[in-house]
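My current task is to audit a protein record that another person submitted. I need someone to confirm that the token line plausibly describes how this chain folds. Take the sequence as given and treat only the tokens as open to question. This is what I was given:
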Amino acid sequence: MLKINAHDGPARLGQWKETITPTVIDYKEIEIVKNVATPFKIQKEIAQEYMEQTIELAKEEETLEKIAVIQGAQYTDLRIKCAQELEKLGYTTLMFANTDELQRNPQDLLSIIIQTRENINPNTTLYFPFATTQIIPILTYIGIDLFDTSRAIYEAKNNNIMTNTNIYPQEDYNITDNIEQENINQLKFTIKEIQENIKNKTLRNLTEQKAATNPEIMSLHRLLDKNYQDYLQKYTQLY
């Protein structure tokens, strides 16, 4: 369970176990609750069946310390129900499934994350795996607490360098002999930058800077401002 120490908009500076959030966790050390992998684009009836099976599998786990998975495909109502049922079972850290697809579908990403965040305990920790460095600031801004090293590992295997603004082919730049470690370092820098901006109440400025350099993040930012002002204002300090 997350102990929230400060807000900057919906973003939370807190403590999860022994770690200050938002943070990056080691993908190789994560323990995930058994669940039914569900395609993102699938009929709702099938998605609901898989979601219910995921909840049943979660009931069989011997420990609540593992990370439970929010299934439900593209359907926000199923995601909310799954998260709520997992909370009732006692899980306090929940992971979104299909995050690669969510990053390519900004409307679904915002709907699923924000409405899930609004309908669960504020102290429940939300985990978004496989995030690119450039999207992490705005994901934090809307309420994500945990990220991981999986994208850094994946891009390294494909000989790509991650920076906090983009992903580049290593062969064009040739700046390191250890791509995976460099990518992880970029993730850690991104998280440190976010933490400092939350402390200074300037995270919104950072997300706007990222949006100015990336069309996909700009689209996400515009949809957020257009469709979720009430959510943003709820947590934004008035000066």
The beta strands are 3-8, 11-16, 19-21, 23-25, 68-70, 93-96, 125-127, 146-148, 160-162, 167-169.
